[in-house]
Each structure stands twice: as structure tokens, then as C-alpha cells.
Amino acid sequence: MMGQALHIISKLLLEGLLHITELDPVRRYLPSCNRPRRTDRYSAFQGKAVSAATDLVVQVVLIAESMRLQAMMATYGIQTQTPHEVEPVQIWSPKQLMKVYEFLGVNRKLGLKGRPRRPIGALGTSKLYRICGQTVLCYPLIFEVNDFYLSHDMALLIDDIKNELTFVGKYWRMSGRPTMAIVIREDNMRDSHFKELLDLLAMLKKGHCDGLKVRMGRLQNLISSSCIEHLDFLHLLPHDALPKFEAFQQLEHTNTGYQSLTDVPKAIAYSEPSYDYSSFYSKPNNEIIEALSHVDTLHGQSQLLGILWHRVSPNFTIDGVMLKDRLEKLTRQAGALKHWAVVRHCSSILGKVVDSLSPYITAILVNGKQITVGVFGRDEAVIDKPLTPKEIKSIIYTQCKDHVYHAVLLQEVIVYVGRLVSTTPKLFEGILKIRTGSVIHAMNLYLKFTSDNPPALESLSPSELRKVVYQVFTLRDNADIRMSQHCTRQIEGALCRVPKDFFDRVWDVMTRTPGGIVVGGHHLPQQPTLSELTIYDLNFALQVEMLLSHISLPEYRHVMIELLMVIDVILKRNPEFSFSDKVDLDVLIRDAFSMFKAEKESPGSDPNNVTNFYDSPSSVTSCYLSRGIMTRLLTSGIGISTEECSIS
After folding, report:
1. Count of CB atoms within 10 A of residue 70's CB?
2. SS3 sequence, 353-420?
3. Can you give the residue ranges of the GH15-like domain (predicted)?
4. In 93, 326, 407, 557, which residue has its Cα 20 to 30 A from 235's Cα atom?
């Protein structure tokens, strides 16, 4: 029936009996900017007459949580508005907007369920909305105070504000200006980085942010130039089916408030001793509960509560308080005191997940990368398609069930890598899979190599952890970091970064190796690999990457990549040569090790210690690798082309 209908419509169009505007009255066949708009009720993309994106101005509205905070900000020349002052416009959390979009396109007869409950991005929260007769502005997701601990780090929030503005300025293509709400909370005042936030707001007041034009003002004055979207589909629902929406609430105080930052009580620099509580794993519950009543350190409480968590129900009560509630309270206390190790420990036990994790995974995937979740040196789960938050949580906590801190650390890594790959994809050139376990291992190595007393990753603040992630991925391009060749090989090998055109060169090597190649006992045969795949096939690159991932030592993996590059050079310079059988690449590296030790080290040195080889520059190691290759070619038999040279 569908085919018959399309045939009839096509004939009518060809005969001129039906016009395309009659077939599609709303003209969806046209670009969005050229479609007829009914009294500008719906947002549209910019037309050609609209100025270029470089002339874009991002509008910023500052929302203070209370009048007390507003008065204090005014003493520094920062004009803000409270939720009451922007009325009748309401300030919403992006979660409230998610509730609205759940009803978009719902049709029970067709089995359509509407938009999934996924976070609203920066572009979506930069519009004003007309919903059920109300005008709404949503603040971005970065200002959401959620269960996860990233919102406790002010330094991270400041960087996120800059990144959010930059992202909106780069990708905004809608008619009207984007309007971004910056929410300032009273808890922010007590943070040691609050003065940095004031500096950022002062810069926005001057009308710029990292080269982006910004206009900061009262919301009522910015509405006329904003992008406004009308969400009319809620009118189709019965009144009793409408969800209940909660606007951002203003805090009320009886006192007038603080006059300056000197009056605000600051968060204290908290420190406490750490003890080993592993002996309690073998003790009964009553002894653990008894010890818990005498432990006054956050670390001690988190360790003991963690032991109980794996033995009893989350609803198990201790002194009238459920175990789950006690852990939640401990998380908030540790977050206020910036005790990040305890925060991460409790968050992992409670199985918490970053709200915006799914979009960051999608960002990594659309940039041509895959991502793996797991612990370094163990089997990892590959994510090669977008997943729901529930599926992501299941994978993370299944892969990291025996590693408490790992489950939350790799979530942070995914968030930071997702942001980096969207803004600076060049940092990830040569990396086919983002292996989160290996990235965390590389971060530990970086701290070990750059600090005499390296801190544990779980003890770093989220902003400090993000800096470590950035340093790891920029190591090869950062001239300020002095590191030995051995250390560099370990970090680059952990990331499994390969040179340009590496997989194409491995393909060329495979064409000259009838038996294929062997790495760590794992065989990649020439056939049917070359007959079923092509040189540009992603599956071939994934097979080679998987072959390299079986190598446990990162520095050895780095040398293996170098070896394959050297083999390709030798075979290209000697087109008459080819291997007669499969090639065990580990044997070639061992030969290079042996020759290096015989010539560069004393006879009594440890034959198993190859640190000096790893610490040598590539110009030296490549020389020994090439000698090992030629030795095997000449002694183990080579295939020599017998084609006669002819002149046509």
C-alpha cells in the first residue's frame, strides 16, 4: 500500500497535477530558515542575511540565590537578580525542561513515547521557552546541584562557565541571541575560589570572555533580543496528566546579610590522619558498629560504613539512622570540607553516576573514537554506540566492582575527555580507543614521574584531576614537561597512541607476511584478514589495536608500535623482500634487546633489565630494531621476488 501511494503521488507531481506546497503545506522540504513561520512562535536557524557567528553576542543573566547574596555582590559592582525580581519569568532547572520534552511526540496509538530522559545541552538551555502560558529560562546543567560531587568544586565550575560560553558562541546558529543564566549560590561564597568567580563576572561585565562578545544585563531587558521557543504540545494533554513543575526557589533570610567577603565564613582547610581498617573485614558486624561509634575521622567512618554496606541492606539502621542515609550525610560533610577521597569512596559505594555522562560518551563516539570501561590490565567493556544512563551505570559498576575508587574516577575521565575531544580533537590523534583504565594508569604514572611525593588520584580535587588528564594527553606537545624517554614511552604506550598512517603501514606489512603477525601469542593471520577487509576499513584498525592491547607493559607496547613502523620502512626500501612465514614480533624485539645489551652494557649486567633500552631515544632503538629485523630476514629465510625487470 505504501509503495502504491508513493507511485501515485510521484505521477501526480510529474504530471503537474499536484504541487509540492500542496503535498507539504509547512514546507519541510525547505531549509529551516526559509520555512514560513507562524508569528515567530518557533525558533529557526539563521538565514543568509543574518550576521556571521563571529559577530554573535551571548546574553548573560546573573541569578543570585538570595537577597543577602545579591547585596554582597552589589558591593563589588556585580548586579544580579533574584528569582523574585525576574518574575513573571521563571528560572527552571534543566531537569524540569526534561519533564516537558518527555511529552514531545507522544502517541499511544503509534507507540511513540516521546523524548528520552536525557540531559538538555548548552544550546537547549540558551533559549527562553513559553510553556503553558509561562515564560521560562533554564540555567545550564553545570549549575545543577546533583548527587554527584563535581558541583562541590568551584574551580571546576569556573572553567565550565568559560567552556559553556565558548561552546554556545561557537555553535549557536538560531535566530535571536542565546541567553545564559549563571546561578550564584550562597555556598559558593564560602569557597576559596570565590574571588576567581568574581574576576570572571567582572570580565563578563566588561563585555567579553576569551574573545567572545558578551552582554550582561537584566533579564527583562534581554528578552526582546532572545531566542524564544513555544512548546505548545502540552496543551494537547488532559489537565490532570500535566507534570508538576518546580521553579528555582529563592532563599529567605531574616538578617540583612554580609557586607563583604571578609564577613563570609570560609571553608576550613581540613586534614585528618588515615589509618588502615583492613583488619575489620574479618570482624563481626557488632564490633564494626562499636568501632564506628568511637571513630571521629571522615576516612575512618567511610571505611567502616563501606564494609557494612557489602554485608547488610542499605536500609540497615545504626543508632536509628539507615546506612544509606548515613553515607549520604557523610558524602555531604566530606564535600563541604573538600575531603575528596572520602567523597569519592562514599559516592562509589552508593553507586552514583554523573547526570551528563551519556552526552559525553556520545561526543567521544561522534569524533570517531571508541571508549572502553574497566580496570587497567583486565578485560574491559567496549562502548561503540550511544547508551542510556541506566546501561552506562550497569557497565561501569560491573567492570569496577572490586575497585572502589575506580568507578567514579573513570566517570570523571569520561567527562573530561568528552569535553576535550569536542573542543581540541587534535589531542587525540593516533588514539583509536579511549581506554579509561589505561588513561587512569597513565595519570598515575604522570604523577609518579613529576612529583617526589605523588598524591593519590582519589585525593585530588576534580579540577586538579582534570588538569592531570589534560597534561597526559598533551605530553608529547608540551615542551615545559621534562621527562625521560622511558617515562614518555610508558605514558604514550598506556594511551596506545600510534603515528600517522600507522594502520595503513601495518596493512602493507601484512601484504608481505603470508603467515601474518604474532604479538604476545596472539595471531593476526594474513588471510582471511586482507581478503575480507580493506586498508581503509575501521575493523582492520580495530583488530590491530586489539592485538596491541594484549601487551601488558605500556613501554613494551610503545616499542612494538615502533617496530612495526621500522618493518614497513625496510620492506618498502627493499621491495624484493618479504617474510616467508608468520612473524613473531616479540622475537624481533628480544633480538634487538640482546644486541643492545651486548654493545651498550657491561657483561655482568642483568639480562632481564632492559630499562636502558626503553630510555634510549627512538633514533637508537630503531637502529637495533632494524638490525634485528634484517638478521631474521637473512637467517630465517625470506621470500625474494623473481619477477624479471622488463621495459614495456
Report:
1. 21
2. CCCCHHHHHHHHHHCCCEEEECCCCCCCEEECCCCCHHHHHHHHHHHCCCCCCHHHHHHHHHHHHHHH
3. 2-437
4. 93
Pairing of strands 317-318, 321-322: antiparallel
- Which residues are registered as beta bridge partners of 578? 639
CA–CA dist 627, 567 (Å, integer): 10
What is the residue type of 2? Answer: M
The DSSP bridge pattern shows strands 179-184 and 228-231 to be: unpaired
User: Cα 449–159–77 angle (5° rounding)?
Assistant: 135
Cell numbers for 322: 539507615
Q: Bridge-partner residues for 90, per DSSP? A: 136
Residue type, 113: K
Q: Cell numbers 542575511 label which residue?
A: 49
Distance separating alpha carbons of residues 134 and 140, to the nearest angstrom: 19
Q: What is the pLDDT of residues 123-165, one digit of tens each?
A: 999 999 998 889 999 999 888 877 688 888 888 899 999 989 9
- In angstroms, the Cα distances linking 337 to 273, 316, 428, 465, 626 are 15, 27, 35, 18, 57
Residues in the chain, overall count: 648
Report yes or no: 339 and 298 within 8 Å, Cβ to Cβ. yes
Neighbouring-strand partners of residue 435: 372
Question: pLDDT by residue (tens digit) across 7-56?
Answer: 888 888 888 888 777 777 666 667 656 666 555 566 666 654 444 445 78
- Crossing angle (nearest 10°) for helices 298-309 and 340-349: 10
Question: How far is it, in rounded angstroms, from Cα 407 to Cα 375?
Answer: 9
Q: With 0-12 CB in 10 A as exposed, 13-18 as middle and 19+ as buried, what is 436? A: buried
Distance CA 437, CA 419 (A): 18
- DSSP-based three-state secondary structure for 179: strand
Q: What angle do CA 551, 555, 560 make, to 5 degrees?
A: 60
Grid coordinates belonging to 200: 570572571
Residues 287 and 307 sit within 8 Å (Cβ to Cβ): no
Helix (H, G, I), strand (E, B), or coil: what is residue 142?
helix
Q: Specify the DSSP element, H or E, that contains 188.
A: helix 186-189
